[in-house]
Amino acid sequence: MIGDILFLASIYVMIAAGYVIVYSSSRVLNFAHGDVFMISAFMGFSVVSALSLPALFTFPVAIAVGIIAGFAIYAILMSPIAGQPVFAAVLVTIGLGIILRAIVIVGFSGQVIFPGRALGIDNSMINVVAGISMTRYSLVAVASSVVVMAALLAFFRYSKLGFEMRAASFDARLAAYRGMPIHLLFAIAWGIALGFGAFAGGLYGMNNQIGVETAFVGLKALVVALVGGMDSLSGAIPAALIVATLEVLLQRYVDPHLSEVVPFIVLLVILFLRPWGLRGTKEIIDRV
Amino acid sequence: MLLAGLVAPMVASQSILHLVNLTMIAIIGALALNLLTGFAGQLSLGHAAFLAVGGYLSHFFSTLDLPFIVVVPAVMVVGSVIGFLVGAPALRLRGLYLVLATVGFHYIALFVIHVYQSSGEKSILALTGFLLPTVDFGIFKLDATFKWTYCLGFFLLLTTAFCINLTRTRIVRAWIALRERDITAAALGINVPLYKLKAFVVSTSLTCMAGALLVYYLGAVSSENYTLDLAVSYLAMVVIGGAGSVLGSYLGAIFVAVMPFLITGLFELVQAGPRFQLRYIVPSQIVAFGLLMIMFLVFEPRGIVGIWRRIRVYFELWPLRRSILSERRD
Q1: What is the CA radius of gyration of chain B?
Q2: Looking at the 3D structure of chain B, how many domains does it have?
Q3: CATH code, B42
Q4: Which of A41, A52, A148, B17 is deepest in the core (most CB within 10 A)?
Q5: Model-level pTM?
Q6: Which pLDDT tens digit goes with each residue over B7-28?
Q7: Chain B within 8 Å of A286 (Cβ-Cβ)?
Q8: Closest Cα in chain A to B230
């Protein structure tokens, strides 16, 4: 059970990091994030099975789909409406989300696939520590989420590019005056965000299944991002653990239907009590 | 024309009347959402959930043997209370927290409805939904489609009059101010959270009314109809028709109602086989919704109304040069 919690939390962390990166760079809640998460998992699986490549190639393909999607969304949809109110951008992502879902329904006939089983990977249970056993791929997911988060935090703190991206998101106009290519920086932010989301999608598919409903996982991860704080990467880690624990516990002991809803109850509670999230900055949502 | 409108429901065919009735309900819903999203600039994905709340509340009240005339106001009151509870935490914040709160509310409401449906004595029967009684005004019963057309037309007129009158008050002017720039609105002495909350409560109350009318008209209520995609399609109505315009809600709702027929017609035009149609019609409708919504947002944020106004202005100023047109923005 702890294995389940850790797996779900690590998937949530990787998706939520994408929401946070996009939000802190362009103040947009990307409602198509969960759909990109799902569609890149689908693409990864179908490319690998069509070319009969080794199963591990799913991940690079999925990540490539995610990064390309990120660049494309920013370049084609987000930059033309840069001057308009934010809610227009959010509406665009909502529209994009339903398009992507419809594409999946047509392209994959709306069926649920099990990439792990179909590609014949070894996903047996292994004992990690005494009492905690988890499947191989969920172990991979946990390990890679730790690496991903460490890399992202280090990237934004220490690298020059990360520093510039933070500057551009802090004040885009000032950054542009200083000669930073802000459109490129924002596009990179979208690429990174959706790339990691796609990686999480690949991992989720290997361990569980992919269907149109999988996009819902992405929506629940939005709650994780909010609980952690929409502008805080590190906040996503405890938030993901909290939400995943509640979900798995309720699924085991109370009611599976309730466990699907509990992230949204957490969402309303956090909006009521601490809307800036566990580690977000309070100022950005100042009450008017 | 008024006379034609009054007589037409008597002679028109059942299927057309059914479409007209559903469109009228959609227009009421779109008007409600347009007040919130178009005028006050607050994004909500909870529209499907509030339609569901309206539907299930009217089922609940009708089991108490209350008549239609009492149920609809009661649903509106309870709906606005729920709207207050959902909106109050999110709307005191700047930014798009309402859309998060309403997504959350959507799933929670559907869960509660699921529990409501699957508990109780007749749980097996009720798994797919509930039936509602025929509306009975005492003197006559709403038991035919054309009678419903009159009834819904009355409600639509009432809602439209309400919305048009509302746009002439201080309230809607305050909403427009806070949509454009919340800080400036606050500086002008508008209590921003209060006015946002007013917008949301009015919108939810009207939405619940639309939900009640819908289930009474269909005679049944089922939780399967209230998906997040429904909420998106209402947003599409507002965006496509024209945000911040009463006429826009009409055009958007009519457009969204007619579009499935256009797509079916298009499929028949290219002589697609029935299997092809079965597989692609629904997804291509969804894609068309999403695509149109995005295209309108990127190219014509004022929606069909914006196009209409530009055409009108173009002909009013016809012999003059275009540069004058670009200066004249309503």
Answers
A1: 21
A2: 1
A3: 1.10.3470
A4: A41
A5: 0.87
A6: 666 666 778 888 888 899 999 9
A7: yes
A8: A98
